[in-house]
Each structure stands twice: as C-alpha cells, then as structure tokens.
C-alpha cells in the first residue's frame, strides 16, 4: 500500500508544471536566530530572495501563538476599572506583513482570509460567545495594544524589488519580542493567486546569564526565592560596610 | 545603555534605574523611611509590570534595611520580644497578602487594587503627617507669642488596644500590654508589604509610637528588624508562587539607593524635624493625588491585554 502511494506521489510530481515548482521563489533571512542577551534592545533582520517570473511578494512573520485576555475598563463610581474580559486563543505573539505593492491591489479579501494576511484577517478564537459589535471592539483593542507594544505593525511593511527579480525587506523586532519559534512565510502572488510559497523557521531565544536566571526562577522557584534573599542580604550588608568606613 | 531585565522581561535604561534608586534612596536617607512607597509606583510608571515591581521591591527592602538592623542591634535598640510578636503578625499578614495578590492577579484587578490601596494608605498617612506638622508649627508660633513653656507629653497613654487579652510584658519597651495589639499591627503592615511592595516603616513607626506607646529609641531598630524578615517572607513567597522577583532589578536599584541614601542623610541633618516631616507629607500626598487622578481621568485606551503564556493556564 505504501509503495503504491509513493508511486502515485512521484507520478503527480512528474506531471506538475515545471516552472511553478519550488524554484519560482527563493528567500532567506539574514539570521535564523535572535538571541536576547543582557544588552538586548530590539533588532532587525533582513529577508531577501528572488522570484522567477512576474508577481508580487507578500511576507508574513508570525510569532508563537498564545492566549490573550483582553480587558475593558469602564467607569464605576467615577473610577476606571476593568469590568469585562474576553480571551482569544491562537493569537500570534508577534505579527508582521510586508508586500511589494499595497495589499488591496494584489490580494483579494478571500485570499487574505485564507492566508491570514493583515491583522484584520487573523483567525483569533474568542473564548466565549459575544455579540458581533463587542467582539469586533475587543479584537480591535487587542490589535491596538499589540501595535503599541511594537509587536504588530499598524501599517504593512514594504518589500522592495531590486530590478525585476531580487527583493528584500527589513523585519523589525522590538526589545519586548516574545521568545519561541517563529515562521516567516513568503508568498508569490500573481493575478490574485498564490503561485508559490516558502516557509522559513526562525527562533527567538534568551541567551546567557539572563536566560539562566529566568529558567532558574521558573524551574527552581523556591530555591530562587532563597537565593534572592541571600543576594539582597549580602548586597545590603556590604553596601552598609562600605559606607560606614568612608 | 539598555539592560534586559530577565524576570520583568523588559529592556530598561540602566542609568534610569540607577537614577531612580538614587533619587528614592536620597529621599529615604533624608526622611529615614524605606522609600518603597515611592519606588513601586515609579517602577510601574517606567514600564515594569506591577507584580514584578512589588516582588522586586520586597527584595530591595531587605537589602536597604539589613545594615540598619545590624547597627541598631549593636546599640541595643531592638526590642526582640516586641519585634518577635510584630514579626509573627507580619508573617501571617504577608502570607495572606501574597495569596490575595495571586487571586487579584488572576481576576485582572492587580493594577487597580495597587493604585487604590496606595491612594488610601498614602492619603491617610500623608494627611495625618501634614496635620501634625501644621499643629506643631501653630503651637510653636502661639507659644512664642504667649511665652508659655511647651506642654510635656505623657510617656504613653493606655488605650483600649492595650487592654485586650493575652497581656505580655515587654521589658525593653517598658510596656505591659496585650500581645494582640502588636500582632495586629504587624499583620496589617505585613499584608501591605505583600500587596504594595513597601517595607511599611511609614505606618509601623507611627503605630508603634502612638498606638503601642513604645519609647522612640527602640522604635526604628525594632521596625527595621520586623521589615527585614517580613520582606524576606514576601520575597520568598512571590518568587516561589508567581515568579515575580527580579533580582537584577533589585540589585541595580539598591546600588543607586545606598549612594543616594548617604547624601540624603547628610542633607537631612541640616533640616529641622518639622520641615522634614512637612516635606515628606507633601511628597506622600502628591504621590497619592497622582495615583488618584490616574484612576479618575479616562484612560488612553479602555482596552488592555494580558498574555497568558503556556505555563499559566487560563482560569
């Protein structure tokens, strides 16, 4: 059975049109790892590639998904406090779009829906039922907050073509970039159709002393607490000694 | 120069942190208070998550109080018996406070609660201090006019608090009062310590003088003694249960703090007691007013987000 499937697969591959295969689009990143070290203050990566034939390029960068609680404040007895919460699942912790032409000129809403192109088209799953207006407001609130943190971009970025084939774009990562596995998807769009796509993984990890402190604090939380007390005692005591002498 | 704080997960200018530690340290040296009540709101203001500001503040309180305790212990200015009862209350209060903090965090009301608690506590303490200062100044002015000698205050007055059951002798403080009074005061201060990241000296010192009637000479040492251990309890519990103690942040603030405190203490020696108290009252009240205004004016965005990572499942 397996052998038959394999044969079928090979047959399909052989029959597929030559030019529309992998070689229609090649892209890579200047680095596949962002290391968050003690001095990390954000960074940017260069995505570059080449296309075969006509078409526009759309780049989608997605950080690891998380659950996000969106809270709405309301005035209660003159004071603003959180009164309503709506959680969303499958929220990309980081999300960027860049394209070689304005998005509405090259992709249809249906296509944007399918490939989740643009923050309005992300498939976020609300945790409970809510009426459409409230849902839209909470969703917009989520996106706005993410934009304020620099994790989403209010405006799609630009993919610049250097000549007819080569393209490049910069992807900016703020200091608060979440750690985890990212995907960078490059789509080649022609007449409103995706004719080639390439997905590249990328990682954001904490490296060095900061990473070790973080891991230790979370894995051996009780020991971390005791060591934190010890450090505070030693630091405070020695500071006292230094200043008493002088 | 930016430094990435591992637990706060924020990138903050290292000089800003040193300056903040130095500024608060200066004020704490000037007024002889811990300064936690200024530090926590300021940390939140520069972008440290509130929970991390409270947890790291507790660690910093240990550091900034420890050398004071040792100095007072050498001089024999610590009433260990009273300190022990206050501490027992403090451990109970702070342990309870950490649990309340965790519940508030899951309800999404931590920021609101921290703000409103600060407004109430600082408003009361600052207001009382200001009234006291104004009264002292007015009395002095009247005395100067009439030429009368200042009225001497009694050593201490017996109030209903002292008459509660479980009477205990505190020879060092020359008191024979109910142990429930210091226990209760310790518990309230301990709870505030866990919820607000303050040492609580600014509440405990007046409470020890006015409510318990302790002699002033042992008050500072005994309150520092209690603060060190209660802060250690808060640090341990916050680190263990919610992982919000950023030791890198605490140490950076401490470095600025000890330097600032030295200058503050030198500068403070030149000022008169009443002017110091009046000035502190004004600072305390302005922090309270600022926090209150922030609660009342419409927020920039009524929507806010909290990311629930994989380790903390949604309730």
Average pLDDT of chain B works out at 83
* CATH homologous superfamily grouping of chain A: Macroglobulin (MG2) domain
Largest interface: A-B, 66 and 60 residues
Strand content of chain A: 35-45%
Secondary-structure-derived class of chain B: mainly alpha
Strand order of the largest sheet of chain A: 2-13-12-4-7-9
Tally of helical runs of chain B: 10
- The helix count of chain A comes to 6
What is the radius of gyration of chain A computed over CA atoms, rounded to a whole number of angstroms? 24 Å
Number of strands of chain B: 5
Shape descriptor of chain B reads: globular
Q: How many discrete structural domains of chain A?
A: 1
Helix % of chain B is 55-70%
Distance between the termini of chain A: 85 Å
* Helix-strand topology string of chain B: EEHHHHHEEHHHHHE
**Radius of gyration of chain B over alpha carbons?**
20 Å
Q: How far apart, in Å, are the first and last alpha carbons of chain B?
A: 39 Å
Mean residue pLDDT of chain A: 86
- Please name the CATH topology of chain A: Immunoglobulin-like
- Contiguous runs where pLDDT drops below 50 for at least 5 residues of chain B: 310-315
TL;DR of this structure?
The complex is a heterodimer of chains A (246) and B (315). Chain A has 246 residues and is an alpha+beta fold.
Can you walk through the features of this model?
The complex is a heterodimer of chains A (246) and B (315). Chain A is an alpha+beta fold. Chain A has one domain (22-228): Macroglobulin (MG2) domain (Immunoglobulin-like, Sandwich). Chain A is built from 6 helices and 13 strands. A 6-stranded mixed beta sheet of chain A has the order 2-13-12-4-7-9. In chain A, strands 1-3-11-10 form a 4-stranded antiparallel beta sheet, with no helix packed on it. Chain A has a 3-stranded antiparallel beta sheet with strand order 5-6-8, covered by helices on one side. In chain A, helix 5 (209-219) crosses helix 6. Chain B has 315 residues and is mainly α. Chain B has one domain. Helix content of chain B is 70%, strand content 7%. Chain B contains 10 helices and 5 strands. Chain B starts with a strand and ends in a 7-residue tail after the last strand. At the A-B interface, strand 5, strand 6, helix 4, helix 5 and helix 6 of A face strand 1, helix 3, helix 8, helix 9 and strand 5 of B.
